[in-house]
Design goal:
Chain lengths: 595, 376
C-alpha cells in the first residue's frame, strides 16, 4: 500500500486534463507509441467528435521513483459543469488531485467548484500551471491567482505543458512525494466502493471499484451491501489500457469486477462490495444523490419500442449515474420517461448515447425545471412536466428554483453581463475583483432562465471570456403560467412550456413563429396556436404542401439529388406523428431557440 | 452506350439558369480542342465502343461552328461506332439549340449534317417573360424556330418550356406548343436556384418565390392537355408522341452507362458516378497536363436502390421490384412494407404487376415518395 497513489486530474473545461494524462501515460510507458493518440482516454466517439471529456476514465500506471516501483491510479475527469457528478465520484476514489489551471485563462468557475469538491474530500491538491507554452500565457499573474485561491506556496505550483510535455517528471515526482498512500486496513473485512459501472454487450455488467479496506480474491463470493445481492467475483482486475485480470487485489487498489450481474438495476454507484464469508459491519458512505437541474420526457419514435427503451435507459444509467428517470405518459406521445439531467449538454449526450450505443431513436420533449406548486386544496406538488401543471384555477401559488451563480469574467464585459442577467430576472449579490481586470460576479437567478441558452449568450457577450458555475439555492414564489400549443385545435401536451407571465405573450408569439418554421408542411393546412388556459394568445398558419418534386433529373442531377433527399430523410428520422401532424424533434426544442 | 458532350458557352446568362457555362466565347475553340483530347483519354471508360446516342448539351451547343463540330465528331468516329438504339431506332444524335441560332437556313443545314434531333430551348412564347428571363431570343424567333428546323430536315424535334409564371401565359404557351405538333415536349417548373440572378433577387426580396399552388395547378393542366393531344407522359417533365421518347435521356433513367465529356459533365459506368470540374480553365489545364479533373464516387447497394427509386418512379416504367430486390439482396417489398402501404393509402403509389409506380396525384410528390422509400 505504501507504493500506491490514487489521484485524479481536475480543472475547468479545456484546461488540458486529458492532454496531460496522455503525457503521463507516455512517460510511464503505459501506452506505447503505436497506440498513442491525442486525448487517448476520451475513448467514446462522442468525446472525440466533440473534443470534450464526458466520462471519468481510470487507468493504472507503473512508475519508478528513487529506485522503487509505484502503482499510480490516474482518473481523468470531465471539466464541463454538466458532468460534475463524474468528478465528485472520482474524487471519492482518490487521496490527491492535480488541479490544472490554463496559464492563459487563469482560474475559472469550475476550477473553483472542482477544487472545493476535492477539498471537501480531504484530497491533497497539487497545483499545476498548464499550457505554459501558449504565447498568451501569463505565468506570473496566474500563479498569483492560484496562490490566492489555494493558499499554497508559490513554489508548490508546477509549471507544465501537456502539449509540449513540459513538467511531466516533476508532476510524477510530486504525486509520489506529496500525495499520501491510501490508508485502510488490509486485514479488515472487504469494503470496496463502487464508483462507476458499465454495460458491455459481450461481458455483461462491469463495476469499477476502489478497495477501502481488506482485499478481494478472484472467484470469492461477494455481497453488495445496499442491495443485499450476492455474486461470484468471476473476474477481477486492474484498469490498464485494456482490462488486466488479477487473482487478488489489495487494500487501496482501483479495479473492475465482472460477476454475471444480469439486472442493471442491481448495480448502484456508491454501493459497497464486501466479502460474503467475512462481511464488513457497515457500508462505506456512498454518494450524495444527484440533483437534476433540467427535466424532459424521452419517448421512443416507434411507440412499440417502449420496453426496449426502458432496457436501454437502465443500461445507460449504469454508465451515467447522473441520469435519473421515471415512466410517464403523454397524451401526444404515449409511453415514455421523464428524465432529469444536470444540464442541456447532459440531455443532448443522453439522447446521442441512446442512439449510438443502444440503437434507439428517441424524441426529447420541451425541457423544464422542477416547480413546486401549492394547490388550492393545500397540496404541495412537484411539477417537472408542463403537462402535470394543474389548471390555473386549482393553483394557489407556484415556486420556482433559484440558483446561486458565480460568473468569472474580464472586467470589460461586466456591463454586458449585468444587462443579460437583469433580463433574466436575476439579483446581483456580490462583485469581487480577483485581479485588476478579472471579476467574479455573484447572482441569484431563476434556474429556468439559466439552463437553456444563458451560457451561450454569456459566451457571446464576453467573447468567450466568462465562465459560469451554479448551485441550487431555494424555491421562490414566481408568477408562472403554462403556455399550451395547439395544432389544428388539438393541444399537444409535449409542446407545452411553463414560462414567467411577464414573458408569456412574447413567448407565445415567437413559439408559434418558430414552430411554423420547424414543422414540415403537410398536405393540409395546419393552424399553430399558443394558449394560456382557454385564451388563445398567438396564431400562425402553416400552408399546405401542394407539390414536392424537382423539375429536372438528368445525368448530372442524379447523385446530387439523391444526397439532398437522403439528408432530408435523415432529418425526418426523429419525427413523431401526433394526430395527423408529423412533428420533428427540433420542434420540441423550439422553446429553447426563442429570444 | 451513350455519350454526352457539354458545351459550356452561352451568349448571355439566363436569369434562372444554374448550369455550368461561360459567356467568354473566345475560349470556345481551345475548349473544344481540350474536349477532343478528353475523348482520346477517356473513350475506353465505357464497357464497349458502341454508341446508341450522342447528346450535345450545354450551355448552347448551337453556338458551335462547323469546324468545331467537325473536330468533335471526327474524334467520336475515330473511337466509337454508332449503332441502332435499343428498340431498333437509328442512333439518336441530339443537339440543344436556342431559337436565335436557328434563324439562318445555312446554319441549320450545317447542324443537320451533325445531328438528327434538335432540342430547342423555347421556354415561353411570351415576349415580356422572355425578356424578364434574359433569354437571347424573342417571341417571333421562338415561333419560327420549329418551322425552320423542319425545313432543314429535322423531323425529330423537342421543345423545352418553362411554367410557373402566370396562368394566362401558361395557357397560351401550351396552346401555341400544340399547334407546332412536335414529337417531344419537355416542360419544367420554374425553379429559383440560389446561384442565379433570380436567386439573388429572391434573397433581396425583389422577387417572390414561385407560388406552389400555381405550379401544381399548371403541372396538372400540362399533363392533361398534352395527354389529350396524344402525348405520352413518360417522365415527370417529359412528354412524347408514342415511340418518340428521348432515347438519350431515357438511358439516364434506366441506369445505362454513359460517358460525359467536357467541364461539369457527369459519367456513369454502372457502379460509380463521376463528374468533371465545373470550371473551363481548370478543366482545360487538367486535360492538357493530364492531371485529374474528376471526382468519383462508388455507389453502395443502398445508393443504387435510392437512385433507382429517385429516377425510376418519375418514369412511366416505374421501379421493378425484382430489380430492387437484386440490388438490395433482400425483398424490398417486405423491407419497406409499412411505408409502401402508407403511400398507397395516401393515393400516391401503386404496386401493379411487380412494378412500383406513381399515381397521377403522386407525380406531384415524386421526391417525397422516393425519399420515403429510400433505404439506408
Ligand atoms: N498550447 C497548448 N494547448 C493545449 C495544452 N494542453 C491541451 N491543449 C489543448 O487544449 C484543448 C483542450 O485539451 P483537453 O486535454 O481535451 O482538455 P480537457 O481539460 O481534458 O477538456 P475537458 O475534458 O473537456 O474538460 C485541446 O485543443 C488541446 O490540444 C497545452 O499544454 N498547451
Ligand atoms: S438556359 Fe441555356 S442558354 Fe440560358 S444560360 Fe442556361 S445554358 Fe445558357
Ligand atoms: Mg478531457
Amino acid at each position: 500500500m505504501k507504493h500506491i497513489r490514487n489521484f485524479c486530474i481536475i480543472a475547468h473545461i479545456d484546461h488540458g486534463k486529458s492532454t496531460l494524462a496522455d503525457r503521463l501515460l507516455e512517460f510511464t510507458q503505459t501506452v506505447g507509441a503505436r497506440d498513442m493518440q491525442a486525448q487517448l482516454l476520451d475513448d467514446m466517439d462522442l468525446e472525440r467528435e466533440r473534443g470534450i471529456t464526458i466520462k471519468s476514465h481510470a487507468i493504472q500506471m507503473d512508475y519508478f521513483h528513487k529506485g522503487e516501483k509505484y502503482t499510480l491510479n490516474l482518473i481523468d475527469t470531465p471539466g464541463h459543469v454538466d458532468f460534475s457528478y463524474e468528478v465528485s465520484r472520482s474524487i471519492a476514489a482518490c487521496e490527491g488531485a492535480l488541479l490544472l489551471v490554463d496559464a492563459s485563462q487563469g482560474t475559472e468557475a469550475q476550477t473553483i467548484s472542482n477544487l472545493y469538491l476535492a477539498l471537501n474530500n480531504d484530497l491533497v491538491i497539487i497545483p499545476v500551471l498548464n499550457k505554459i507554452d501558449l504565447p498568451g500565457a501569463m505565468p506570473e499573474e496566474i500563479k498569483d491567482e492560484m496562490v490566492d485561491l489555494l493558499g499554497c506556496d508559490r513554489d508548490d505550483i508546477i509549471p507544465a505543458s501537456g502539449k509540449e510535455g513540459i513538467g511531466v517528471p516533476e508532476i510524477l515526482a510530486a504525486i509520489v512525494e506529496r500525495i499520501p498512500p491510501p490508508t485502510g486496513d488490509p486485514n479488515a473485512p472487504l469494503q470496496a466502493l463502487i464508483f462507476d459501472s458499465h454495460f458491455n454487450s459481450y461481458r455483461g455488467i462491469e463495476v469499477i471499484f476502489r478497495i477501502k479496506n481488506g482485499s478481494i480474491r478472484k472467484g470469492e463470493k461477494v455481497k453488495f451491501m445496499n442491495t443485499g445481492k450476492e455474486y461470484n467475483a468471476d473476474e477481477i482486475g486492474i484498469l490498464g489500457l485494456e482490462q488486466e485480470p488479477r487473482d487478488r487485489m489489495e487494500c487501496g487498489d482501483v479495479g473492475y469486477l465482472i460477476s454475471g450481474i444480469k439486472v442493471a438495476k442491481e448495480v448502484k454507484v456508491g454501493d459497497t462490495i464486501t466479502s460474503f464469508d467475512n462481511p464488513a459491519a457497515a457500508a462505506i458512505q456512498g454518494f450524495a444523490d444527484v440533483k437534476p437541474m433540467v427535466f424532459a420526457g424521452i419517448y421512443p419514435v416507434e411507440t412499440s419500442e417502449f420496453e426496449d427503451l426502458r432496457e436501454a435507459m437502465e443500461k445507460l444509467q449504469l454508465n451515467d449515474a447522473a441520469l435519473v428517470w421515471e415512466p410517464e405518459t403523454s397524451a401526444a406521445l404515449g409511453f415514455g420517461f421523464r428524465c432529469g439531467f444536470l444540464g442541456m449538454l447532459h440531455m443532448e449526450i443522453v439522447q446521442e448515447r441512446l442512439e449510438r450505443e443502444f440503437d434507439m431513436t428517441v424524441i426529447t420533449t420541451v425541457p423544464s425545471v422542477r416547480f413546486e406548486v401549492m394547490t388550492t386544496k393545500g397540496e404541495l406538488r412537484q411539477v417537472s412536466a408542463p403537462a402535470d401543471m394543474p389548471e390555473p384555477n386549482l393553483i394557489d401559488y407556484i415556486e420556482e428554483p433559484f440558483i446561486r451563480a458565480q460568473i468569472i469574467t474580464k472586467a470589460d464585459y461586466v456591463g454586458g453581463i449585468m444587462g443579460l442577467c437583469m433580463d433574466k430576472r436575476s439579483i446581483l449579490k456580490n462583485q469581487v475583483y480577483l485581479t485588476a481586470d478579472r471579476v467574479e460576479l455573484q447572482f441569484e437567478m431563476p434556474l429556468a432562465e439559466v439552463v437553456f441558452d444563458f451560457f451561450d449568450k454569456l459566451k457571446t457577450i464576453s467573447r468567450g471570456y466568462a465562465s459560469l458555475d451554479y448551485e441550487f439555492m431555494d424555491n421562490r414564489e414566481s408568477d408562472m403560467v403554462k403556455l399550451d400549443v395547439m395544432l389544428n385545435g388539438d393541444k399537444v401536451d409535449a409542446l407545452s412550456a411553463i414560462v414567467h407571465r411577464s414573458k408569456s405573450y412574447e413567448w407565445g408569439k415567437k413559439l408559434c413563429e418558430k414552430l411554423r418554421e420547424l414543422i414540415p408542411r403537410q398536405q393540409f393546412e395546419i393552424a399553430i396556436q399558443a394558449a394560456i388556459g382557454q385564451k388563445i394568445i398567438a396564431r400562425e398558419t402553416l400552408s399546405a404542401l401542394r407539390k414536392d418534386v424537382l423539375a429536372k433529373c438528368y445525368g448530372g442531377d442524379i447523385s446530387r439529388k439523391r444526397k439532398l433527399l437522403e439528408k432530408q430523410k435523415k432529418g425526418k428520422k426523429r419525427m413523431r406523428q401526433v394526430g395527423n401532424v408529423e412533428i420533428p424533434q427540433e420542434a420540441f426544442m423550439a422553446v429553447l431557440k426563442i429570444n | 452506350m451513350h455519350l454526352y458532350l457539354h458545351i459550356p458557352f452561352c451568349k448571355q446568362a439566363c436569369h434562372y439558369c444554374d448550369f455550368h457555362f461561360s459567356t467568354n466565347l473566345s475560349q470556345k475553340r481551345p475548349l473544344v480542342e481540350a474536349m477532343v483530347r478528353e475523348i482520346e483519354q477517356r473513350h475506353a471508360y465505357l464497357p464497349t465502343n458502341k454508341l446508341q446516342t450522342i447528346y450535345f448539351g450545354g450551355g448552347t451547343p448551337s453556338l458551335l461552328t462547323e469546324a468545331e463540330l467537325d473536330l468533335l465528331v471526327n474524334s467520336i468516329h475515330q473511337h466509337f461506332t454508332l449503332v441502332d438504339g435499343f428498340n431498333g431506332q437509328p442512333p439518336e444524335i441530339t443537339l440543344e439549340a436556342n431559337p436565335d441560332d436557328l434563324a439562318d437556313p445555312v446554319r441549320l443545314a450545317m447542324l443537320r449534317r451533325y445531328a438528327n434531333r434538335l432540342s430547342i430551348g423555347i421556354q415561353t412564347f411570351d415576349e415580356s417573360t422572355l425578356r424578364w428571363m434574359n433569354r437571347a431570343h424573342n417571341a417571333n424567333e421562338a415561333k419560327l424556330a420549329v418551322y425552320r428546323a423542319r425545313e432543314a430536315g429535322f423531323d425529330n424535334l423537342s421543345i423545352d418550356l418553362i411554367y410557373g409564371v402566370s396562368d394566362s401565359i401558361w395557357s397560351r404557351d401550351l396552346e401555341q406548343a400544340l399547334t407546332l405538333n412536335v414529337p417531344h415536349i419537355s416542360a419544367y417548373n420554374l425553379t429559383i436556384e440560389p446561384d442565379t440572378a433570380f436567386g439573388r433577387w429572391l434573397a433581396k426580396g425583389k422577387l417572390t418565390a414561385v407560388d406552389e399552388s400555381l405550379s401544381a395547378r399548371q403541372f396538372t393542366q400540362l399533363s392533361s392537355t398534352l395527354v389529350d393531344a396524344g402525348y405520352v407522359h413518360y417522365e415527370i417533365s417529359n412528354f412524347a408522341k408514342p415511340d418518340q421518347y428521348a432515347q438519350h435521356n431515357s438511358a439516364y433513367w434506366q441506369r445505362r452507362p454513359y460517358l460525359g465529356i467536357g467541364p461539369s459533365a457527369h459519367s456513369y459506368d454502372g457502379v460509380s458516378r463521376q463528374h468533371n470540374v465545373a470550371n473551363n480553365s481548370l478543366y482545360s489545364k487538367g486535360i492538357n497536363t493530364g492531371t485529374t479533373i474528376a471526382e468519383r464516387e462508388i455507389l453502395t447497394a443502398a445508393d443504387q436502390v435510392n437512385e433507382y427509386l429517385l429516377t425510376g418512379l418519375r418514369t412511366i416504367w416505374g421501379c421493378r421490384l425484382s430489380e430492387l430486390d437484386a440490388m438490395l439482396g433482400e425483398s424490398f417489398l417486405s423491407k419497406q412494407a409499412p411505408t409502401i402501404s402508407k403511400l398507397q393509402q395516401t393515393g400516391w403509389l401503386i404496386c401493379a404487376e411487380n412494378d412500383l409506380k406513381l399515381t397521377e396525384s403522386g407525380k406531384l410528390f415524386a421526391d417525397r415518395v422516393a425519399s420515403e422509400l429510400f433505404v439506408e
